[in-house]
Amino acid sequence: MTQRVSIWRRFDYVLFGTTLLLEIFGLLMIASATRGAIDPDIISRVPDQIFYAVLGTIIVFALAAMDYRLLAALHVWLYLALLGLLALVLILGSVGDAGAQRWINLGIRIQPSELGKIILIITLGQYLSERYHRIDRFSTVFGSLIHIGIPAGMVFIQPDLGTTIVFFLIWGVLVWSAGLRIKHIFLLLFAGLILMPIAFTQLEDYQKQRITTFINPDSDPDAAFNIRQARISIGNGGLFGKGYANGSQSQLRFLRVRHTDFIFSVIAEEFGMVGGVTVMILIGLVIMRILHGARTAADPLGSMICYGVAAIIFFQTTVSIGMNLNLMPVTGLTLPFISSGGTSLLSILMGIGLAESVIIRRRRV
Q1: What is the mean pLDDT of the chain?
Q2: Is pLDDT above 80 for 202?
Q3: What's the confidence (pLDDT) of residue 322?
Q4: Span 250-262, mean pLDDT?
Q5: Between the CA of residue 71 and those of 67, 105, 115, 232, what are the distances in Å?
Q6: How many Å is the Cα radius of gyration of the chain?
């Protein structure tokens, strides 16, 4: 009993409280963005998000109570389970927008590639921690690339370019934190420059169009329309915004996919620059608390888990806000904690739970 009490005493309540605040705010923004909708799929977004938020919050405490090293001991089975789920998506997955096949129904509708982000942090982290003193060998680095490359390839052909990039981001952050050598960095950068044109030719037409529209908006006026509407929404908000559920661009339906890709524009229109900056500060606080957990972790595996989770949150936040401001191409990545997307929210909260597990078992300073 004493040990249980001491464990929860080390729980990071600031991290959890900030996460919970962002979850609640996200629900309110999805409710505003879908207000007055007649499409059954759009109407169900708020109750679905509430379900995943409650489930995810329970998982936070469950993972925090569990020693992350126990999960790492199951890394082989977790990795095989991920490959199995991704294979199941390719065979039986439901087809969504633009022909993307990313979801399966296992009682609840899930997107395995989202869960894969967290699973890969555990499995790749364990792979690198077992070889921590051999990171100077290229065989170790190459093995880690194979480890991430197989699931990344399966996600790429769904097709899902955004999540594929996140998978390789996880790889880059983890091998860097494990001590990747400078000579290997230059070798991999050279290989990446060679492979990038080849990878571009394998993209779907709509994915190529997103990139060309970002470079030249006049090439596709219809696609550029929503980007312009997003910028108008942000501009309309001014300093303090028009008030909750009073944004003209979102409420009058000028702004499309406002509950997912462009939810930051809804925030900026309704709560202004102050609201948008506040959301960024809160997400920044979450990242800082997780990075603090990485610095005080009891072992390299704990550090890599925290670095991986922080990297996902930072990258998705940067890309999501960047595409709302037309600073980055549209990728479909969600704004963590805020955007509608059940499995996406679930995976982020799983990451928070893992980070809490590391923080609870941190070394004594």
Answers
A1: 87
A2: no
A3: 92
A4: 82
A5: 7, 25, 14, 46
A6: 21
Q: Give the span between the Cα atoms of 230 and 146, in whole angstroms.
A: 39
- Joined together, the tokens standing for residue 95 give 């087809």
Q: Name residue 109's beta-bridge partners.
A: 105
Alpha carbon distance 101, 92 (integer Å): 9
Distance between CA 164 and CA 152 in Å, rounded? 5
What is the rounded CA–CA span in Å between residue 251 and residue 31?
A: 11
* Parallel, antiparallel or unpaired: strands 109-110 and 94-95: unpaired
* Distance, CA of 200 to CA of 181 (rounded, Å): 28
pLDDT digits (tens, 9 = 90+) for 13-33: 999 999 999 999 999 999 998
Q: Give the residue-averaged pLDDT of 318-337.
A: 89
Between β-strands 101-105 and 94-95, what pairing exists: parallel, antiparallel or unpaired?
Answer: antiparallel
Q: Are 192 and 150 in contact (CB under 8 A)?
A: no
112-130 helix and 342-360 helix, angle to the nearest 10 degrees: 30
Percent above pLDDT 70 for the chain:
92
Supply the DSSP string of 134-155, one letter for each residue.
Answer: GTTSHHHHHHHHHHHHHHHHHH
- The CA-based diameter of the chain, rounded to the nearest angstrom, is 66
Local structure of 104: helix, strand or coil: strand
pLDDT mean over 296-312: 95
- The pLDDT score that the predictor gives to residue 271 is 94
Judge residue 324's burial from the number of C-beta atoms within 10 Å of its C-beta, 0-12 exposed, 13-18 middle, 19 or more buried: buried
Query: DSSP for 45-70?
Result: HHHHHHHHHHHHHHHHHHHHHS-HHH
- What does the pLDDT look like over 52-90, one tens digit per residue? 999 999 999 999 999 999 999 999 999 999 999 999 988
Integer Cα distance of 314 and 308 in angstroms? 10
The lowest-confidence range among 83-92, 134-143, 274-283, 340-349 is 134-143
> Beta strands of the chain (E only): which ranges?
94-95, 101-105, 109-110
Please tell me the distance from the alpha carbon of residue 154 to that of residue 239, in angstroms, as a whole number.
44
DSSP 3-state helix, strand, coil percentages of the chain (rounded to 5)? 75, 0, 25
